[in-house]
Amino acid sequence: MSEDRRILTTRQGHPVTDNQSLRSVGERGPATLENYQFIEKITHFDRERIPERVVHARGTGAHGYFEAYGKIGKEPASKYTRAKVLTQTGVRTPVFVRFSTVIGAKDSPETARDPRGFAIKFKTVDGNWDLVGNNLKIFFIRDAIKFPDMIHAFKPDPVSNRQEPWRFYDFVSLHPEALHMVTWVKSPWGIPANYRQMEGSSVNTYKLVNERGEAVLCKFSFEPKLGVKNLTSEQAAEIQARDVGHATRDLYDAIDRGEFPEWEMCVQIMADGEHPELDFDPLDDTKRWPEDQFPLLPVGRLVLDRNPANVFAETEQSAFGTGVLVDGIDFSDDKMLQGRTLSYSDTQRYRVGPNYLQLPVNAPAQPATTNQRDGQMAYAVDGGGENPHVNYEPSSMGGLREAPRTPPDYHQYVEGHLGRYQTTKTADDYKQAGERYRTFEEWERNDLINNLGNDLKQCPEPIQLRMVWHFWHCDQDYGTRVAKAAGIDLERAKALPPLEGKPRPGQNRQGPTYTDGSREEQTPQANIAARGSKTATAQGARHR
């Protein structure tokens, strides 16, 4: 690349020397509040569109309830968490769920090839819990500082106002961590047939905390009782010719008929720690936790049984944030989760207003009692203490008081050098993508190859060659078939050197591993940036 290109700066004009990583306490430690570069970048991004959502603009929603089994797998739920929403057997917690596409505008077709949002607002006895996830269990990137770049690359070109394949693959070709998600999205799993037959996932890693203050890592999943059903590109095109809102229609009509969709909520659990035995970091949201090692443990059921009375008041003004947790559910140091926790609620304060939690669809089941006041569109006071003159704490004159602390607090020990880090466990950037390709059924592989081939034909040659290089390192058959479908010279692609500044495929702390399974002698690495159980019939419903 040309060295005379202009330098990237912040809005303050400061040169940006590292645009790839948040500042954190060590490689796996939490992000810090003084992340000025990130905060400036993400808060500006949050305000790029109004009033339509920047992402997840096209959506629909429904009311329902969540009912906990009181167990996690075969164990009492209280063994892992003190969250009442997960431990109280048979209690029906009201929920509002919003489904959506990610990139398209509000009136874009629901047949778009895109991840699907699966956002749930639980109105628990201890206040709101928002679980803001997607249908697929992974994501394109693992560091939140890259989110605005990713969305800009995937959104329409600012000059042509068209979604251009070369922009998508230009970004992806320089981020090998995205290969796993690309393999999912460009397969039929990128077009769910409807919302009722679609999985949900937290994507990010959280922690469950019990009464003793002990914590485990966890991921949340929602498995549809109807099974999973996806569409090929041809099937999606046929539906889109008749109806651009088929999934909204399907969900509304099913609930209207009394056919209430249901999902089983499951968690995967892992001990809190670094897990050197794994070839991926469990906090990396571009990776799945293998279900044979970390099984899906049933926790409860989610049922949707009531359509909104008004789409704007409920669906469009519903607002979710990954930072909205209840006692017994806590944050992990997942860098995407830490960034989303600032971005999501900040976006809602800008898009809907600082008093968005006064709206009925967003208000907690238990009345809020705060000392926060005023702001745009305030129409109520969050019921303060006995003395309306006192809107501060502490006070001896009848103001609000802090809640008692009964269970032990969870205290995470953190130690490390403050800096910008990228994960050094990168072997799985290629491994899991290759495994997913080999797990697909032949009709899914055919659709994947056809979609990638058609896209890459529209890209410049350097991007074509690099993408084939990536796919070939995921799986040799994968790369060979993509090259043939797109008319790309496979040998020229294979001859490319590894990306500058990136480990070669299969290389991690344990030494390089190649696609044929061989290993090289272990060598020290530089301190990088130191800085479905049912078989599917053709395009049919199934679990995976």
Automatic annotation (TrEMBL):
Q: Which PROSITE patterns match?
A: CATALASE_2, CATALASE_3
Q: Which SMART domains match?
A: Catalase
Query: Ranges for the Catalase core domain?
Result: 9-401
What cofactor(s) does the depicted protein rely on? heme
List the InterPro entries: Catalase, Catalase_AS, Catalase_clade1/3, Catalase_core, Catalase_immune_responsive, Catalase_sf
Q: Where is this region: Disordered?
A: 1-24, 494-544
This chain belongs to which protein, by name?
A: Catalase
- Lineage of the native species? Bacteria, Pseudomonadati, Pseudomonadota, Gammaproteobacteria, Steroidobacterales
